[in-house]
Amino acid sequence: MLPDYSNNQLKIVFIGCGSIAEYHYNVFTALGVDVVAASATTNSKHLKSFVAKHKINGYTSNKQLIESEQPDAIVVLSSWKATEKVIDEIIGYNLPILVEKPVALKPIKIEKWLKNYPQNSKKIQVGFNRRFYDFVPEVKNWIKNNTIASIEVHVSEPYREGLNKQEQDELFLANSCHPIDLLYFLLGKSPLQVEYVSKRNKGIQGYNAIFKSKSKGPIHLIANWGSPTKFGITFHGIGNKLELSPLEEVRIYEGMEVTESGYVGMRSYSPKVTETYYNDNINDFKPGFLGQSINFIETAVLGNVKNTQGCSLKDALVVTELMAEIKC
Question: Is 202 exposed, middle or buried, given 0-12, 13-18 or 19+ CB atoms closer than 10 A?
């Protein structure tokens, strides 16, 4: 049964209303929270269709949106290139903010928010929804109870012709910060240190890096542009391994299964799957969005409990700093 916050009479507004907005709208309204208005850039087709569909108010000014509606919280769903400017505009209102990732393209911007708005920034959570997948507690427990020999992080990074290095690196951050944040969270927010980054030369487009944590390691990041590789994280234990690939599925392997291949003197060796977990898709919500929204309401909006699972602005800084170091 879902929590019901209708008695709290909470009002939330959206800044940005592209395709991701429908997922957020469905979750918040199912929880009894009123999404009362949305804003977007002038002449946005998305804004017109979104407010008409849901019969809510529409604005082309974020300032007017907030001051007219007096919301209890804000959900920022703007494009990743515009998000920094939006946060600059609204952080001074000292309202709880749930913002889609990445919250900033460079660490220095997050550092300024933390320095200039120390109290306001505590109310900001970044939408790394994979932290809220159902099986995350089981994965963290497996990591805790096993000796980790090494970790692989595979990033299926798209390559787009015509982008300069800065644009491609920004795309890398936008697409790849999810698995990096999930790794950081699964390791207990252990500091990650870059040991080595391969040079981009001889036609190689992408990044291969080695970094480590104080608790586990070494960690190999494999992010080659255009490679036909699924997003995934693999934890290699002693005699076993845990694989998230895609990130919505967990498989635990122990030992090898040996079968005769049918050719003389040849055998086939396959890892044995001992456990499998899948993220439940409750009520057709986007995976992780239900838990993320409940956490945001309970911690940032109502202040009932301390935030121990949602991505804070400080957590987002760690991820952005790490990825910035990889790109140097």
Answer: exposed
**For the sheet containing 249-260, what is the strand order?**
192-197, 206-213, 219-224, 150-154, 232-236, 240-244, 249-260, 267-278
**Span 87-113, mean pLDDT?**
96
Task: Concatenate the DSSP letters of all residues of 155-189 into one string.
Answer: ------TT--HHHHHHHHHHHHHHHHHHHHHHTTS
Reduced to 3 states (helix: H, G, I; strand: E, B; else coil), residue 74 is strand
Q: Cβ distance 90 to 16 under 8 Å?
A: no
CATH architecture of 134-283: 2-Layer Sandwich (3.30)
| Gap between the Cα atoms of 258 and 115, Å rounded | 58
Q: What is the CATH number of domain 6-131+287-309?
A: 3.40.50.720
Q: Sorting pLDDT into bands at 50, 70 and 90, what band is 281?
A: low
- Give the start-to-end residue ranges of the domains of the chain: 6-131+287-309, 134-283
Residue 88 to residue 110: CA distance in whole angstroms: 10
Residue 68 pLDDT > 70: yes
pLDDT band at 51 (very low <50, low <70, confident <90, very high): very high
Q: Which residue has the tokens 């970044």?
A: 126
Residue with the larger pLDDT of the pair 55 and 208 = 55
Query: 274 in helix, strand or coil?
Result: strand
Contact assessment for residue 39 and residue 14, using Cβ atoms and an 8 Å cutoff: yes
Give pLDDT tens digits for 141-164. Answer: 999 999 999 999 998 766 666 777
Burial zone of 129 (CB within 10 Å; 0-12 exposed, 13-18 middle, 19+ buried): buried
pLDDT score at 261: 67
Nearest to 39 by CA among 21, 55, 17: 17
Q: How many whole angstroms from its chain centre is CA 1?
A: 25
Residue 129 dihedral angles phi and psi, to the nearest 5°: -70, -20
